[in-house]
Amino acid sequence: MDRVKILQKLRQLDVAHHDDGDGGYALVDAIKDWAKTLDLSSRKGLWDVLLELVSTQEPTLWGVSLEVLVQENPDQITTQLSRLANLDNRSDEWKDYICLALLRLRHKASANSCVNHIKRALEDGRRAALPVLAALCQVDAEACLKFSAAYFGHVLALDQMAEKHRGYIPAFVRNFLEVNDDLLRRFVEQTKAVNFSSGNKLATMIDECLARPAFVREIGQEKVTALRAEVKN
Amino acid sequence: MVTRKRNQAKGDAIIAAAQNWKERYDAASDYEKSAMLSEGFLNVAAAVVGTKGLGEAKAVGETAALGEVAGATKALGTAEEVAALSTGAARTSEVGAVAEIGEAAPALPKNLYHYTSEANAALIEKSQLGLPGRITYLTPEAELTSLQAQIELALPQGNTGGSLFQISTEGLDTSKVMLQRRVPGNVFNRGGGGYEVLYNGPIPLENVTRIR
Lengths: 233, 212
What we know:
The complex is a heterodimer of chains A (about 230) and B (about 210). Chain A has about 230 residues and is an all-alpha fold.
């Protein structure tokens, strides 16, 4: 299947899923399902087209294309995405997504450029980059803990900032638990070392997140109870 | 002569639809009024200028919504009739008065909600709600069961509606709110009927709280 036919099919799927209203996740699944039906050569062609859509920031499909590439993780995709991460004249938001993709794919060679991107974003007060900081633990847990503790130790010292950060806590909890169960305890400990009061607020927010029924369903009551005890102590 | 009579009838139908709309508006709650202002404006605009340029799915949605407004009068209702209205032959001056009412920007409630599947909920919590370039449907309805959400919000197949997010509208980019309307039914026999707010693009996690 050539590039034009692949693009036509992607357009058809886009139109068919236009009214899903789910933010694009069903379209991601539809493209993955279609990819399974392709022969190897056509599938390789599909990955190339999806990368092209990401690179050119095609208005309606680049986000979906990137998510498909992350979930399918085809050969060499991390190398190709890391080239994109170094392009100039791209928006900060677009680079957030590229860095997040590389970290989700655990591409260690991109760690330094992602750290630089995260630092700049946080200096600029762009909280939208916090999920990227959370995902940094996938390639460099120590750097992630260091920057996260410094950041939360500082911002949570201000009462009005706690509410603005509550929504980001699940991103840290989920990423940390994927890497090592002990990271949450160390996150709180290191944040307390920066600012004790901030560390306590962070512990409370993590505890609230772990206590939700959805987490209990996912990882089990026993593990949740143990994690909550560690975080609170 | 025949054409003039037909245009006259179509113009009357729009006025009747507008009167019906006003009756519904007078009886509605504050939030419903806000959504109806937006809906009414867009419906009338669609009738006058056509749906060209609004995108296929939106055009279908507008047609359905206009059909709903017209339903009480039984005067409009087919796609052909709606399309015919875009010729501009109808009595647009009266319709324009209705459109002016809708010029007030619709207010959003303090919180909106998004129903999704468990698998998507985990993805959302690690990045943001929705992917770049895609539309996310939100609703002011906070207490729907999973089954109610599937039906009233006409969720697509595969979306169980089992997970629920609350979205604080404080600080949300209101320029990305595309439309507020009643939910039209879908091809999976999910009837719709609830209210939805169409938001263009992802919503940052600081506005998002998982409820279940």
